[in-house]
Specification:
The complex is a heterodimer of chains A (about 100) and B (about 280). Chain A is mostly beta strands. Chain A contains no helices and eight strands. Chain A has a single domain, classed as Immunoglobulins (Immunoglobulin-like), CATH 2.60.40.10. Classes of the chains: A mainly beta (about 100), B alpha/beta (about 280).
Chain lengths: ~100, ~280
Amino acid sequence: MCGATEGGLSLNGINTDIEAIIQGQVTKGGEPVSTAYVRLLDKTGEFTAEVPVSATGHFRFFAGDGVWTLRTLAPGAEAVDTPVEAAVGSIAEVAIAI
Amino acid sequence: MSRENALVTAAWVEENLDNPQVVLVEVDEDTSAYDRSHIRGAIKLDWTTDLQDQVRRDFVNKAQFEALLSDKGVANDSTVVLYGGNNNWFAAYAYWYFKLYGHQDVKLLDGGRKKWELDARELTDEPVKLDSTSYTAQEQDLSIRAFRDEVVAAIGSHNLVDVRSPDEYAGRLLAPAHLPQEQAQRAGHIPTAASVPWSKAANDDGTFKSNDELKEIYTEAGVDWTKDTIAYCRIGERSSHTWFALQELLGEPNVKNYDGSWTEYGSLVGVPIALGDERGEA
């Protein structure tokens, strides 16, 4: 699938033309983190969604147009906030180092 | 019900892993999560196959629920402790479901699977099979379950609490943002419903906020404590979380969960819908 992360989560069967996709990978010291939670906060800071990362540290959201914040929680690490801009019909790739 | 009876901590669960009176049950939106790892001794309930009729859109009936719990090894006097991912959304849904069928001793692990993982507590992939039982359920307690007609009748007269995210409430999103947005139903919310996202009741680690904090949150959002309350979301699982906070933690009477929620309401012909961030008129 065009635009999908190589080695990331599959977008098979998803109509990416109508989705504002935010996806990426969580790493620590350059290595993927397999136990972490990424939450999507809206422009006011309100919780919108949360996913556990995959075994390879990948995550994905289907948001809307606009500015969002990704908050990453992992054992033994401080929460990390990462801003991201999403737009329908595109994929925003985010690399998060904790 | 009270907070002390309805919630247990991760430390309590760890201390009771070998207590035969306690049956740990994992329920996740991602039904494969348990198979990858779970708390030692926990059994799995699959909300899509175990708790849903496979033909009609409805719950399994009393006889099916009895057969399910008997097969899973849950006894009528078991202390059932539920936990799961997504900040306990589906565990809260299962809690409400156990209450619907009259199970007496059921509790939620505060913070669910996320809190357990963030604490770096042990998980295992060892299969679990408990000895079967002969479980007897009660008839559904419809004092905690709302159906569509009473939801429509509640517009402008009862507390309606929409617990979805603000963007779903306003109609800017059709589903939680970890799911694709392509949906059949209309967007928006039930007119007069207050927007109180489920997440306001939880801390970042998934544990519930204190009763004082919860009371303040719902009061500020305009919940009239003298009126009956119906909570809803998209399919009834996040609203189970809010039902739990209102009825089981705060001890509020007359709180119902509308499990049809937005996937039903947003597909009904002719019912009123409000768009945007305001509540809308009755």
